Amino acid sequence: MLDTRSAPVLELQNIHKAFGGIVAVEDFSLDVRAGEIVALVGDNGAGKSTLIKIISGVHAPTTGNILLDGAPISMSSATKAREHGIEVVYQDLALADQQQVYMNLFLGREMTRGPFKMLDRKAMISETERLVEELDVRIPSAHATIRDLSGGQRQGIAIARATHWARKLILLDEPTAALGVAETAKAEKTVAALRSRNIGILIVSHSLDQVFRLSDRICVLRRGKQIGIRETAKTDKNEIVSMITGV
After folding, report:
1. Domain residues for 59?
2. Which positions ≥6 away from 118 have C-beta within 8 Å?
3. Which CATH number goes with the domain that contains 9?
4. Which of 115, 143, 165 is the last residue of a domain?
5. What does the pLDDT look like over 16-65, one tens digit per residue?
6. pLDDT, tens digit, 9 for 90 and up, residues 84-95
7. Are 90 and 175 in contact (CB under 8 A)?
8. SS3 sequence, 13-46?
């Protein structure tokens, strides 16, 4: 069970983001704790993707503070966010289709050996095999090419990559939107298993069924404004729908 007394991994304090005269997010505050899954829900245009991009360093907040383990940080770029131990799984997965599974796991952060920095393929393959087995991502081989895998297998690799590199937080942006029922169930099982790795998880999903299956808390946005946060076990779909729609 989540220890709610533990210090938050991530704290967003009074985040405001405007693009010119358009306010995308207004006075948003949220914390995410290690081992917790928090869902971010709302209609299109509610500000969910903007918040994900702020946390992952793609956009800087206009005003407001981001704290990691209680310390204020500047998330000036996606590279900086990764350095802080924050990883993102986007809906399009951002995988290299022509590359093998193990190369995707280490894309841009390849393991090398020797004075000439030769690729250490053996080490990367071994680590890939260990991780996919641990997360129960069923693929033919670490040598398989991404384009030859199913949607669910690709999703599993994207989650495995984020899991391998994340030290503090994983952001999941509509992680199962393109998957069928069976593959969605498999991906959700993988996401749920991430709790045991003692990192925070923030998930954006349009599926309230999924949100209620996975999350510990639900944060609702409407037109850039934070409507409220509910403990999943203490609310229901009717209340969340009402908060999303304002009806």
Report:
1. 1-85+169-175+195-247
2. 112
3. 3.40.50.300
4. 165
5. 999 988 999 999 999 999 999 999 999 998 999 999 999 999 999 999 99
6. 999 999 877 789
7. no
8. EEEEEEECCEEEEEEEEEEEECCCEEEEECCCCC
